[in-house]
Amino acid sequence: MPAGKLGRVASKIEIPASKPSRAARKVEIPSNQHAMSGIGSSFYLFLFLGFLYMAITLEPSNPENDTFMAFIGLVLAMFVSVVAMIVCFILTGLINLQKRAM
Asked: Could you list the residue ranges that cross the membrane (predicted)?
């Protein structure tokens, strides 16, 4: 067989790209998922830090104002933001949605 024909035949042969193993795909997907859920739930962390700053620097605007009720409201707001941060991280980062789709 002449060398020219062999070269043309060899150039037409396509080698399929190997797919990553299933274990490699499982390792890759959660790391991206954890990063994205950390970014998404960080909003609630900043909200919590804002409420914490407001509670620490809480002062009455005039002598008749009671800061106790304002402090209780800020503590409840901090609790809600922490719970929202945890739930957001769990739902978006720890539950693999691709398993549910299969």
From this structure: 35-56, 68-97
Mean pLDDT, consecutive 10-residue segments, the chain of 102 residues? 54 62 53 83 95 94 86 96 94 72 56
Tell me which residue has tokens 């990063």. 35
The position carrying tokens 């106790």 is 68
Cα–Cα distances (Å) from 1 to 6, 8, 70, 82, in that order, read 7, 12, 91, 74
Question: How far are the Cα atoms of 1, 2, 13, 17 from residue 10, in angstroms, in the given order?
Answer: 13, 13, 5, 17
pTM of the model: 0.62
Count CB-CB contacts under 10 A for residue 54. 15
Cα gap 96→36, rounded to integer Å: 13
